[in-house]
TrEMBL record:
<comment type="pathway">
    <text>Quinol/quinone metabolism; menaquinone biosynthesis.</text>
</comment>
<protein>
    <recommendedName>
        <fullName>Chorismate dehydratase</fullName>
        <ecNumber>4.2.1.151</ecNumber>
    </recommendedName>
</protein>
<dbReference type="InterPro" id="IPR030868">
    <property type="entry name" value="MqnA"/>
</dbReference>
<comment type="similarity">
    <text>Belongs to the MqnA/MqnD family. MqnA subfamily.</text>
</comment>
<dbReference type="InterPro" id="IPR003773">
    <property type="entry name" value="Menaquinone_biosynth"/>
</dbReference>
<comment type="function">
    <text>Catalyzes the dehydration of chorismate into 3-[(1-carboxyvinyl)oxy]benzoate, a step in the biosynthesis of menaquinone (MK, vitamin K2).</text>
</comment>
<keyword id="KW-0456">Lyase</keyword>
<dbReference type="Pfam" id="PF02621">
    <property type="entry name" value="VitK2_biosynth"/>
</dbReference>
<keyword id="KW-0474">Menaquinone biosynthesis</keyword>
Length: 286
């Protein structure tokens, strides 16, 4: 656990989390906060070794560490249907991939395990999996299909490659009628015990950032065009399509995802979701 006077906070560098961070300014908080911007894998490791007090993190990584973490309320990266940035590109229809090979991105455990749940539980298929760097051309040289996430998936979806394209958020919703939560904001339970006021202030600042940016998405749309490309209409649809809340719908969808992950042996233990709320712990039971 961090023993310094500052709260060390992790920021996901991915586009889909930008709205929650855009107007979040640590300098305006009464308590000093140090922000660490990294890809999820690095943030997950720092949560694990205790050098982060609070962080945005991939849902699967939260599940792995759930016994010592609590989820902050009202913020997440979720979708109810299409997510647009977690895509399976395939040479053949998804139903025909049973004896095939799927190349997995090496950047996201949440999406990789979502794909495995979909293939095993709902399509009743057992393809072979290999893991590669996220490059569609090289992945397709070695596999029948490729899973890409984030900016790699978005840019690949803009090219005329001739592959079938399946949106995993949409597939999950089609089969379960639930939302899928890809990232949560979690805090160390030990840290939360002694710093309730700090957590409250940080949570409020994140929620305020989310509410302000959703009223006018222009700043994040312009940043996305500048850094990744694309059009205003694409990015407007992308950001408005995502859900940045973490309410009952998102909670139920995430619980179902964890239950399937455990049933299929992808998660060693059952995940108990603990929600942080002021000075009391809300223990979520199914």
């Amino acid at each position: 656990m961090n023993t310094h006077s500052k709260t060390v906070l992790g920021k996901i560098s991915y586009t889909n989390a930008w709205p929650i961070f855009h107007y979040f300014d640590p300098r305006k908080l009464t308590h000093p906060v140090e922000m660490v911007t990294e890809v999820p894998a690095v943030l997950n490791q720092r949560i694990h070794d205790g050098s982060l007090d609070l962080s945005a993190m991939s849902s699967f990584a939260y599940g792995m560490e759930s016994k010592r973490l609590m989820v902050l309320p009202d913020i997440s990266v979720s979708s109810k249907g299409e997510v647009k940035s977690i895509l399976l590109f395939s040479k053949k229809k998804i139903e025909d991939l049973g004896g095939g090979t799927i190349a997995l991105t090496n950047t996201s455990a949440t999406s990789v395990n979502l794909l495995k749940i979909l293939m095993t539980k709902f399509y009743k298929l057992n393809p072979a999996y290999i893991t590669q760097e996220p490059d569609l051309t090289s992945m397709m040289e070695h596999a029948d299909a490729a899973l890409l996430i984030g900016d790699s998936a978005i840019q690949a979806s803009w090219t005329n490659h001739g592959y079938y394209v399946y949106d995993l958020g949409e597939r999950w919703h089609d089969f379960t009628n639930h939302s899928m939560t890809f990232a949560v904001w979690a805090v160390s339970s030990e840290y939360a015990k002694c710093h309730s006021e700090v957590i409250h202030e940080i949570t409020d600042a994140f929620i305020s950032s989310k509410e302000k940016i959703m009223q006018d998405l222009t700043p994040v749309i312009n940043e996305a065009i500048q850094k990744i490309g694309g059009t205003k209409s694409y990015w407007y649809d992308y950001f408005t399509n995502l859900c940045y809340d973490f309410g009952e719908n998102e909670l139920q969808g995430l619980q179902l995802y964890f239950r399937y992950a455990h049933e299929l042996g992808l998660m060693e233990h059952e995940v108990r979701l603990d929600l942080w709320n002021e000075n009391k712990l809300i223990r979520v039971t199914e």
